[in-house]
Each structure stands twice: as structure tokens, then as C-alpha cells.
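Before relying on records like the one below, remember that each one covers exactly one chain. Contacts with other chains, cofactors or solvent are not represented anywhere in the record.
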Amino acid sequence: MALTSLLVVASQIGRIEQYVPVVIRAVPIYVTFMILTPLLARLTVCAFRLDTQTGRALIFSAGTRNSLVVLPLALALPADWIVVPAVIVAQTLVELIGELFYIRLVPSVIFREDRHCDAALAER
């Protein structure tokens, strides 16, 4: 997966440079989504009384929206839609960086084994 991501990003990086103004406007949306996803997952886990492992899986699967799966469709768009692959590659880069934060924060802060929803609600 890492090799595929590297190849795709390498093939599209020139487009990102070409469309920096458009890509920069989209990046805050992706970052906001990466920040909100753990909070929404935590609420979902508490609401449905799911276990810690399920909560962790929910964060990681929701945080990565499989933008690389959509990229071949974007590449098939007409030539005047060339900005779309650049925006999708930017999304992939934000997701990859966000996942690095998730790897550190999810097990130690958001979904620790010793912290359950009932205890978290009681703290409030």
C-alpha cells in the first residue's frame, strides 16, 4: 500500500504544484475531518456501547476515506477537470499524515483500554 501510495503521489505531484491555490482551499476541510472523526467515533462507540477495539477500528476506517480508490475515476474525467486528481492526492497526503497522529493518539488518549464510556461520562 505504501509503495502504491508513493507511486500515485509521485505521478500527480506536479499537478498539486500547478493547482496550489485550489488544493490549499481543500486541505483545511480534510484536516477538520481528520480532527472530528475521533470525536464522532467516540460518541458513536459510547452511544452503541461498543468495545475499545471496535472504536479504534471505527476511527481508522472512517479517517481514511480511500481516496486512492477514487483516483482512477478522477483520472478518467475530461482533461479540463485536471484539478480533481490533484485535490484527491492532497487528500491522500492529509490522510497519511493524519494516520500517523492517529497511531499515536488513538490507543493512548482517545480509546485507552482503561477508559470506558461510562467512566468518561461520569467525569463530566
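Residues 20-48 form the longest helix (29 residues).
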